[in-house]
Amino acid sequence: MPLSRRLAAEFIGTMFLLAAVVGSGIMGVLLSQGNNGIALLANAAATAGILYVLIVIFGPISGAHFNPAVSFAMHLRGELGRRDTVAYIAIQVVGAALGVVLAHAMFGLALVQAGTHVRSGWPQWLSEAVATSGLLLTIVMGVRNRPQAVPALVASYIFAAYWFTGSTSLANPAVTLARALTSSFAGIRLVDVVGFVAAQMAGLASAVLVLTLVLPEGRTYAARLASP
C-alpha cells in the first residue's frame, strides 16, 4: 500500500479516535449528573467501541496503529521502516490534535483549551508504564498468534485498562499530547505530559523485555531497540 494512503488512514483513524475519547468524556459528564463512575464507564465503552471499528476498517490499509508506541513496536518487528515510522508518528500527532478540536466543535466549546486535569506522581507513571506495556503485548502477541482477533483484543484490553490503572490508560504519546488541548473530563495538564510519555516509553521497553523472554524472535526486538 502506498505510504500516502497509509498515512491518510493513520490520520483519519487517529482523529476519529480522539474525537471519540474526548467527545464521549464530554457527553458522559453532561449526562451522568456528577457521577464520575458513570462518566468513566461511558468514556471507556466509547473508546473501546471506536477502537474495534477503526482497527477493522483501517487495519488492512495502514495496520491501524494510531499510536507512536505501536508504530515503534512495529518498527522493532521489522514491519515498518525508519522513514515510514517517523511519518506515521508525525501524522498521528497531527490527527490526534485535530480530533480534540473536532470534539470541541461538536459540543460548541472553545476549539483549543488548556488541560487542567492533574495527572502526576509515581502511581500515575507506573499505571502508564503498565498500560502501555500490556497494550503492546496484546498487539504483538495477537498479531503473531491470532491476527483476526486483534480488533477485539485491543478494544477489550483498553476497556479493562481504563478501570484497572490509576491513570485510566492513555497508553499513547500522541493521545497524551492531544489531551493536553482539552480541559474536559479526558484532559491532562501540559506539564504532566512529559512524565506520561516517559512512562509510556518505559512500558514499551518492558514489553520488549517480555517479548525477548517469551518469543523465539524476541531478541531481535531488543537488538533493534538498542541499535542507533
From TrEMBL:
Protein's cellular compartments: Endomembrane system
Keywords, comma-separated and alphabetical: Membrane, Repeat, Transmembrane, Transmembrane helix, Transport
Q: Which residues cross the membrane?
A: 7-31, 37-64, 85-112, 124-143, 150-170, 190-215
Fetch the InterPro entries from UniProt: Aquaporin-like (IPR023271), Aquaporin_transptr (IPR034294), MIP (IPR000425), MIP_CS (IPR022357)
Q: Name one Pfam family in it.
A: MIP
Q: Which residues, if any, are the signal sequence?
A: none
* Membrane topology reported for the UniProt record: Multi-pass membrane protein
Q: Which family does it belong to?
A: Belongs to the MIP/aquaporin (TC 1.A.8) family.
Record's protein name: Aquaporin family protein
